[in-house]
Amino acid sequence: MGMSVEYTIAQLEGRAESCELCALFLKVTRSHLDPVPDKVRFDRRDSYIDLNNTGIEPIQLLRDPDTTSRRNATLGLPNVPNTSREVHFEIIRQWLWLCDDEGLHPDCGAAKMKPGQMPTRLIDVGADDDEAVRVWEPGKDDHQKSINLDRLPAIFRNAILTARAIGKRYLWIDLICILQGPERDFYVEARRMEAVFSSAYCVLAASRAHNQRDGFLGPRRERDYVAMYDPHRNVSFFLCENIDAFDRHVLGGHLHKRGWVLQEHALARRTIFVTKHQTYFECSDSVRLT
Q1: CA neighbours within 13 Å on the CB side: how many for 58?
Q2: Rounded to the nearest 10 degrees, what angle do helices 154-165 and 86-101 cross at?
Q3: Residue 18 placed within a domain
Q4: Whole-angstrom Cα distance, residue 205 to residue 270?
Q5: Are the C-beta atoms of 258 and 265 separated by less than 8 Å?
Q6: How far apart are the first and last CA of the chain?
Q7: Coil, strand or helix: which one is 217?
């Protein structure tokens, strides 16, 4: 969908009460331009709308995940009020599917582990209705420990829920899969962490959580948007307030202030970042968000 439109501020003000799109244009103009000019122009740049050719992109274009069209627009919904809902996980599954099954991202596949690089322990997350998970040692079926979910902090429960939702049976969490304390196996397992992150199907970054007690799935604020439909291309899409701020939400967030997280980010082929504002999916091809 191409778009280039120009309005006077008087036109937008006169139509704002009856036209949702005019109201959105007027809102973002007043928010981003000071002083407000007499005329404003909006131009589509891929999945964003540029304001007055300034490089400011206050509006984001999203394609409805239910549409059959593959037109060039970011897949997503304007508001996912609760990140623990199925629609949120469906978007993540579609992001991963684009990497896996369409062959569009040849560099997104995980590196193969060499002998001796497999971590000693993994979490078998089990089925959706299981009330416990097992800590499993590959090759040692008799060495399994069951942990009830209600004994785990919220951040780990959310990670297990996410792994189940995207259809992955095994999960690696350092504080569970590495024996902590003196004379344990931290130094042995630490030498394998590079292989763990570079060979992972994907890495989950709980950017929203400040500590283990914080969950990273839950409600978040809604934003203004306008729903539209193009009958000629059979595509539903949304024009939304742009709250995409990967640099601020992820790279400038508290999680990335920890040294080892920067290393893990660099090693991972694909990462899902769940922040307070957005969920971002970063792979070798692009950064997507919802």
Answers
A1: 18
A2: 50
A3: yes
A4: 11
A5: no
A6: 20
A7: coil
* Residue written as token pair 């007499």: 38
User: Does residue 200 form part of some domain?
Assistant: no
Query: DSSP per residue over 26-48, as a string?
Result: HHHHHHH-SSPPSEEEEEEETTE
Q: Which long-range contacts (CB under 8 A, 24 or more apart) does 29-37 make?
A: 31/58, 32/56, 32/58, 36/9, 37/9
Q: Which residue has the tokens 């902090």?
A: 153
- What number of H helices and E strands is found in the chain? 9, 15
pLDDT score recorded for residue 62? 87
DSSP assignment, residue 214?
Answer: S
Cα–Cα distance between 15 and 33 in angstroms, integer?
Answer: 20
CB distance 34 to 9 below 8 Å: no
| Integer Cα distance of 231 and 194 in angstroms | 49
Q: Is residue 39, in this structure, part of any structural domain at all?
A: yes
Scanning the structure block, which residue is given the tokens 């937008």? 12
Among 61, 20, 14, which Cα is nearest to 230's?
A: 61
What tokens were used for 160?
Answer: 């297990």
- Residue 60, judged by CB atoms within 10 A of its CB (0-12, 13-18, 19+), counts as buried
For residues 189 and 172, the answer to whether their CB atoms sit within 8 Å is no
Tally of domains in the chain: 1
Q: Is residue 101 part of a domain?
A: no
- Give backbone dihedrals phi and psi of 161, rounded to 5 degrees, phi first: -60, -40
What residues have CB less than 8 Å from 5, skipping those under 6 apart?
41, 42
Per residue in 211-259, pLDDT tens? 888 888 988 878 889 998 877 777 788 999 887 677 676 776 667 666 6
Reading the block at residue 205, the tokens are: 């970054």
**Domain encompassing residue 75:** 4-79+222-244
Instruction: Summarize pLDDT for 135-173 with one digit per residue, the tens.
Output: 988 666 655 789 999 999 999 999 999 999 999 999 999
